[in-house]
Amino acid sequence: MLIGDAFGFLDPLYSSGVLLALKSGELAADAVVEGFEKGDTSEAQLGRWGEDFNRGVDRMRRLVCEYYDGFHFGHFVRAYPHLRNTITDLLIGDLFTDRVDVVWEPMESQYPPGRAPIPAWNAGAPAETIQDKEPELVLPAGPTR
């Protein structure tokens, strides 16, 4: 099983890594204990937490992207005071419940004209982005044996 940064890594400047590492460890441990109790240590059992975890990570990723794109959370709270507690919950790490998803549509309503919503992590990259993308890992040419 992969947990913590081995499972997925998110922006170190936003300080979400410890929370996500601990949560993945908690969910993985629960899956192992349940698997032993049921006599099922299959990949499906041990990995059953992954989809829910990825939804939570995607919520944090979206907050990070909003922050770096210049979104102003203070303006948001003033415009939508009834969502103050929900946005606070998200920012402090309450990422693993669907009830917090009520913030996304109002958040997008505050975007400047022409700005597209941040796509989900698994939405894929536009073809034009992929074709112009430089490789992220470049190995230096060296002597061959």
State the gist of this model.
By secondary structure, the protein is mainly α. Helices cover 50% and strands 0% of the residues.
Explained architecture:
The protein has 145 residues and is mainly alpha-helical. Helices cover 50% and strands 0% of the residues. The protein has one domain (4-121). The mean pLDDT is 84. It has helices at 17-38, 43-46, 50-68, 73-79, 84-91, 104-109, 127-132.
Can you give keywords for this protein?
single chain; 145 residues; mainly alpha; 7 helices
Beta-strand percent range = under 5%
Oligomeric composition of the shown chains: single chain
Would you identify the regions where 5 or more consecutive residues have pLDDT less than 50? none
Number of domains: 1
Over the alpha carbons, how many angstroms does the gyration radius reach? 19 Å
